[in-house]
Amino acid sequence: LKSRILTNCSVRARQLVREDLASLGAIPPEAGREAREKIGRVVKRLVEAGEIGARPASAGKSAARSQGKGAAARVPLPDVKGGLARLPVSRRNPGQVVTLLVDMAAVARRHGLLGLEDILESEGMDDDYLKVGMRMVLDGREMDQVVAIMGARRQAVVVAVGQRWEVMGAGLEGLANGDGAYGMQERCLALLGDLPWQGRRAGASIVRNSVAVKVKDSLQVPLSRWKAAELVPLFMALTMRARSKGWLGLDGFAGGTISDEALSSDWYRKEPGRRVSPGAVDDESLCVPLRLLVDGTPWETVKAAWQVRKTAVLEDLARRLALIQTGVLGIASGDHPRVLEVKCKALLGQGSWG
After folding, report:
1. Nearest to 224 by CA among 307, 166, 165
2. What whole-number distance in Å separates Cα of residue 18 and Cα of residue 97?
3. From CA 351, how far away is CA 329, in angstroms rounded?
4. What pLDDT tens digit does each residue of the chain (354 aa) get?
5. 193-212 burial string, b = 16+ CB within 10 Å, else e?
6. Nearest to 164 by CA among 327, 310, 340
């Protein structure tokens, strides 16, 4: 009983309980019997109220015998860590995320919440929203706090991604209109009102000397992971390239590949960039409309298609985060895996994902 209780406590609570037990010292036999009887009365009351279930040990043995000698007494748990090693959270579609949440619920019901410790530390658990939410649950945070923090974090993520799409749209429109480098900067930075260097020449030097380093030296980082502000110098370099070489000068970038020379400008000739790793230009939301512009498609046509894509991506992101929050709260509440699966699939039914 002691092991079962401690297994289902958070790390902090378990430490406090053990410290309290150590400080009690030797317990008189009479006090021990009285405590056991008290626990028994509480368990009996809960069983009679239907809040917990209980069955005699003999019933379990009889059921096992009736299934035959080789029958397993319990359904084996899924290999969650192995699954994450093969397919990290970030690469899972919503249906696969549901499967992960259901498997985690099964582990938590069998081994307690602390049975998820190793899963959260595995390499494939690369979704910060899921990891932070489960970490709060394991640390014993109140449910209201978990709901509030995850809700605020979800909103912040959606806003940040939306801002990134706004900057991409402004950059694409600037390229279509033939903006110069500083005109492009003004256009993009006008959308980043929370930045102290918005649209100023002093800010231009900051963009040039710090954020631009990511363009020059760090295209090893996939483009899809760049933040909104980090896209500004990229579009400035692209527009300078387009003005000097024409649309065909962007052909390599639009095709999803890039060379150092494709981004060359007065800024970068002094310190040539490194060779870009394969797959660095991996953001179809930028490469596809840029490809259309290079091929001569009118901006209004490209903009209409791009807006549809933007709306779909942001809606899917919001639903994915809501799905993860539902899973975290269900696991924290001790939901049965099948119950949690029904809740999550109800969210899936609201969208067009598969």
Report:
1. 165
2. 36
3. 21
4. 666 676 666 666 777 777 777 777 777 878 878 887 888 888 788 777 776 655 554 444 444 444 444 444 456 778 898 899 899 998 898 889 999 999 999 998 888 888 898 899 888 898 999 999 999 988 888 888 999 999 999 999 999 899 999 999 999 999 999 888 888 888 888 888 654 443 344 344 434 443 444 444 444 566 777 788 878 878 887 888 888 878 777 776 665 544 444 343 333 333 333 333 444 556 778 888 888 888 888 999 999 999 999 999 899 999 999 999 999 999 988 889 999 999 998 888 744 433
5. eeeebebeeebbeebeeebb
6. 310
Question: Which residue type occupies 271?
Answer: E
Nearest alpha carbon to residue 295 among 323, 257, 254: 254
Between the CA of residue 227 and those of 167, 203, 260, 292, what are the distances in Å?
10, 17, 21, 23
Distance CA 104, CA 113 (A): 9
Question: How many residues are recorded in the chain?
Answer: 354
Rg (CA), the chain: 28
Who contacts 14 (Cβ-Cβ below 8 Å, separation ≥6)?
6, 114
Tokens of 290: 């840029």
pTM of the shown model: 0.66
State the Cα–Cα distance between residues 80 and 339, nearest whole angstrom: 19
Backbone angles phi, psi at 143, to 5 degrees: -60, -40
